[in-house]
Amino acid sequence: MNIHEYQGKSILNSFGVAVQRGLVADTPEEAVEAAKKINETTGSDWFVIKAQIHAGGRGKGGGVKIAKNLDQVKEISSQILGMQLITPQTSAEGKLVSKVLIAEDVYYPGDSEPSEIYMSILLDRATGKVTIMYSTEGGMDIEAVAEKTPELIYKEVINPGLGIQGYQCRKIAFNLGLSGKAFKEMVKFVESLYNAYVGCDASLFEINPVLKTSDDRIIAVDAKVTLDDNALFRHKDYAAMRDLSEEDPTEVEAGEAGLNYVQLDGNVGCMVNGAGLAMATMDIIKLSGGEPANFLDVGGTADAKRVEKAFRIILKDEKVKAILVNIFGGIVRCDRVAQGIVDAYKNIGDINVPIIVRLQGTNAKEGKALIDESGLKVHSAIVLQDAADRVKEVMA
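That's the Succinate--CoA ligase [ADP-forming] subunit beta sequence above. Prediction below.
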């Protein structure tokens, strides 16, 4: 589950990670009041106005700006709120900005020059260990850094059974070229950041940049936090942070119906039970010349109601020109799925795309008979390749 920057910073702060202070606002008036409260703490009349959407690259799209007084806070907030912000990580339509973060200015003058650091924590599934990736080239696209100057990217691998060790925190601070107060601050920052990653059951932390201020403080200026959906039952307060307006409405609807659905860009809708079978189905559609329009796993307990809901969700995509249903009857019985397909076809009514159904496993013969005797325009198949060939035929 993705969350907003201000929410991610609140989680980090709760674990003792130093963050850039800020307050969220829904209106220009609230933005001004937030700036006044920040001014009481910092004494600075400069503020950073940040659009809150689930996408990176906000500054490139005009979603991050500096305000040098309260009048500018109101003016800039008015410009950003309500805009369709387009970044390298959004669609061509962009995302609607409904909140802004009013943050303190942390690039103030001092005894040394501020410097930006990139840092992320994620699970390396190949090794089964947590990896901290970091670089002195913060504030830039890490992909570009990896391509042009890979020697500037460091990795620290952590055994999750042992947790992060003191020498690893010191190694990170040393590789970043820090010394004195900044070195000590970074050691504390890294340890707290790792504890936050584990403590909130995150799947990704990306802090770009981590800032060494002019007075050698180490703080998180940005915070991209992705939480593991499977662990939200342990964190009811984090689950409440979910912003449905930032998610695809069809995917939200599917989730509420207990369906695992991901929208893709193809023209062949898929309905499958089991993630592995779904991936294989998408592959064979691709090999047969089609393009998968979605990933849809109806689960191992698919019944008529769930099958009908799955059809309705697939048909919301106007690009879909055919639907391939591929069911292996293990826990679920094929005849029940077949009956669900027949009922769904009748209940939905005018279905203008061909449907190819492949049933294998428990009661597959009975299921095929139900499909064949229904009188509906549904094509049945036994072998997966036959089903894919049928898709190719009806798409021709």
